[in-house]
Q: What sequence folds into this?
């Protein structure tokens, strides 16, 4: 047993037992400053979700195994199963999209805008520094319901942009494509329908590989050189939605129904994103394909500078990616079927992970047939976005001045000053005064010692992040007076001596005076 | 497969597949109004935890199996294991206390006040109407660190009272006892040390069984009639802390070290709870023993009228409890060892569950040796409280006017009025106006249709809970004017016609005017 566990990171070896004291591989404890940043991300995003009429739901962390079966293709091997201890067979959820579709089908929901911030589970190879974990958070917003063309889709794009801007990430681009256009291009280039998904997955690698490598893969997948070259004449284009529509309209041979439908839909979208004034964040990129099969319309993913691989690693990356391509070719026989709204490219980085950036930070698309897989009498069209919390976290953490974050929310620290003969430390009195503050809704602490020396009390105050000290002086307090001192203004500031009954109004006044401080400012700037 | 699943509740049978579409047994989806109530409970409690200097942490939902091993005694059979798919063996967490102790030991924490609101997992027999689930929330606050006697303990009791009062539950009592006193009583009555835990677990049933039944169990556990009767002279007492201390001080034969230490500690506590003015909520109850073994000092549990069994079921209850006692006698050979800070009596109700109330709504105690089980070189004393969210939820839900809750947070609904020749529905224009509201931080929605009829837009507004409608009139809007109408004031109110550029200030003014409404008031009264 020791041998098995020794191979993984250990935090501390406890001698009392025969195993290493740690969290399971690919999981971690969240605490302290990381927790503040993470909660701040959640708050920012959920405020935006609510602004758009979103409601939140919570589904069980495990589902009946059959619910997940057949939704993730080859990646099903990454699903965590619960042990068969009698009764139903269950597995931990792999994403939030399949549980959402199950929820919609189960409860006969016809329309909903729901957000869900929760952990999902994948037995993947962890790459913790890049934010790839076995237990990690997804932050999803989805709109289900029969609505007019591209109306919910454009709102999702709006939310995506608003979310990233709200998190102070402004150097991002949202790559867009449309499955119907992509399929239409392949059809026009002579790719047989049965080969479309595998050619599509090769094309999706153009963000990490040069055309030559992708072309090689397409040839290996049984297409002719002529077909491959013809595909290249299309997929090399990216630009504004209207620019690319223009190129597509002028292209020869793209008159098939699928492509024409897709182009018309993108034209409608172009109007709506202009109404929302987000067109400058968007880039229509004909090489975007997204990993999984279940998308039926618009697809998108957001990338930032941190998504890209480091420049000097390009050669290593290229080699690793080729190796990956080979492996993928072997793996991707079936291709995944559904359920992967926003993989955020996890599995795409598997082998090349040491050489590439964090990948896309949010992704999603339209999936009109997933709910129907659970409720075959009624299909509910859906479109959604998933923010990759761990990746956003690693980008944001680099920008934040950690020294200014305090995970405690304490405003006031109650102390006693005294000593010498007959000094009892005023413990009960500190409790009473602190209790008055609590009852007035003020965050307050005191040292849990009978007799607390001054140094330790100031240390406690500093650690707590308190802005004000309320001091019970050995002589002053028995006369009904408290000293109220704003902290961090130097030793010479002795504070204000006030009657005990003025405690609450004076503390409230002082707290109000302390303007939005650095800590709050730092968080607001996240 | 169908046969296996048919035995459990089904929500809907999906014909497309050979299994029932549902959540796993003992789990549920949280949505809509239940979600509002639950979030409101979480907010209330976490605000209080922060007020006391608490910081939150998040641990993985599963732990290495060895971490949980040997912590829950007989109840270990209720632990959910993950399937062995290669690599480490893991299990879902059973409570938040053992993961907390692991966290403290793992990260060499010497002092922390932490709160943790998260799901835990037990393969118990579900009783959903009573709030007993296989996946359920616990809401824990614990203080770890070497502090002066009873100082953190009294603050935990203060938090317990503040939490329940904050949730508008005021008809509660917190039963208190001290493990050292209980052990001292057993010693004084002649119970051999090796029998103390099993006699203790019999005594713990005095809240559900008459003395005769408990006495019978004590005799069955090998004690003499004389010993049992002597125990009764002690454990029948309950009252204020000072009253019971007085009785104990005057009792014959209670001069052993354990009892005397416990009594001294309770004397210190009496002082502190008076400083916090919570003494009236407390009841020193010498029959309180709490299920698990790892408590080392003060123990407590909060009960309300809903905790008690229905009156007319007393006979059934008594029979069922006797049956339970027999079963327990067989089961409880070893007794549990540790980790169960706030079982909230789950397993105690196992057989009698149909006849008893929801049980205790919060519980906890001091456990000074649990961290030391993980880090044997350093033991960190801890004391904590766990609120049973599902039980609080079922009490609170009965009090709330559900009709006044809306899970959406929408304030403004943007509509277009028009029709006839050349009417295009103002979709893009509605998007633009809604976007202006969003950018000003206002929660707003509109109907996702090109041409939306008036009825459907008002239905949408009502469903969204919007307080204000912003109306784009076919004639008015092209003239640069919008109509702003406060909703719910009847048909005759035509609203105010304002220039488009005044949209934000006018909407903000109107929203500010709408005073704290019923919905908010209802939630504030939770």
A:
């Amino acid at each position: 047993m020791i041998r098995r566990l020794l191979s993984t990171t250990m935090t501390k070896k406890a001698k009392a037992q025969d195993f290493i004291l740690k969290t399971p591989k690919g999981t971690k404890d969240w605490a302290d400053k990381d927790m503040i940043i993470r909660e701040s991300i959640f708050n920012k995003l959920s405020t935006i979700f609510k602004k758009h009429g979103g409601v939140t739901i919570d589904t069980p962390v495990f589902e009946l195994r059959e619910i997940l079966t057949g939704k993730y293709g080859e990646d099903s091997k990454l699903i965590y199963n619960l042990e068969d201890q009698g009764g139903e067979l269950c597995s931990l959820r792999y994403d939030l999209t399949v549980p959402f579709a199950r929820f919609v089908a189960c409860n006969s929901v016809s329309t909903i805008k729901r957000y869900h911030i929760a952990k999902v589970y994948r037995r993947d190879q962890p790459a913790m520094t890049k934010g790839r974990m076995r237990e990690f958070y997804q932050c999803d917003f989805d709109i289900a319901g029969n609505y007019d063309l591209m109306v919910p889709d454009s709102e999702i794009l709006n939310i995506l942009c608003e979310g990233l801007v709200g998190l102070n990430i402004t150097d991002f681009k949202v790559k867009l494509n449309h499955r119907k256009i992509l399929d239409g291009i392949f059809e026009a280039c002579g790719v047989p329908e049965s080969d479309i998904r595998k050619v599509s997955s090769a094309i999706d690698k153009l963000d990490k590989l040069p055309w030559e490598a992708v072309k090689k893969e397409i040839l290996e997948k049984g297409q002719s050189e002529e077909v491959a070259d013809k595909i290249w004449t299309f997929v090399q284009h990216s630009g504004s939605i209207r620019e690319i529509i223009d190129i597509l309209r002028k292209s020869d041979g793209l008159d098939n129904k699928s492509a024409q439908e897709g182009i018309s839909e993108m034209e409608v979208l172009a109007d709506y994103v202009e109404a929302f004034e987000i067109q400058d964040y968007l880039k229509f990129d004909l090489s975007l394909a997204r990993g999984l099969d279940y998308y039926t319309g618009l697809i998108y993913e957001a990338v930032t500078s941190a998504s890209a691989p480091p420049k000097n690693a390009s050669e290593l990356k290229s080699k690793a990616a080729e190796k990956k391509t080979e492996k993928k070719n072997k793996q991707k026989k079936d291709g995944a079927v559904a359920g992967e709204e926003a993989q955020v490219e996890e599995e795409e980085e598997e082998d090349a992970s040491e050489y590439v950036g964090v990948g896309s930070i949010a992704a999603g698309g339209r999936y009109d047939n997933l709910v129907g897989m659970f409720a075959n009498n009624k299909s509910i069209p859906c479109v959604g976005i998933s923010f990759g919390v761990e990746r956003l976290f690693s980008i944001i953490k680099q920008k934040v001045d950690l020294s200014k974050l305090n995970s405690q929310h304490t405003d006031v620290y109650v102390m006693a000053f005294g000593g010498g003969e007959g000094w009892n430390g005023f413990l009960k009195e500190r409790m009473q005064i602190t209790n008055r503050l609590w009852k007035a809704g003020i965050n307050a602490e005191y040292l849990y010692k009978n007799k607390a020396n001054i140094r330790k009390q100031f240390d406690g105050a500093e650690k707590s992040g308190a802005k004000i000290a309320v001091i019970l002086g050995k002589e002053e307090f028995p006369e009904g007076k408290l000293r109220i001192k704003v902290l961090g203004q130097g030793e010479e500031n002795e504070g204000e001596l006030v009657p005990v009954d003025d405690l609450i109004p004076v503390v409230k006044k002082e707290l109000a005076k302390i303007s939005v401080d650095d800590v709050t400012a730092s968080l607001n700037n996240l």
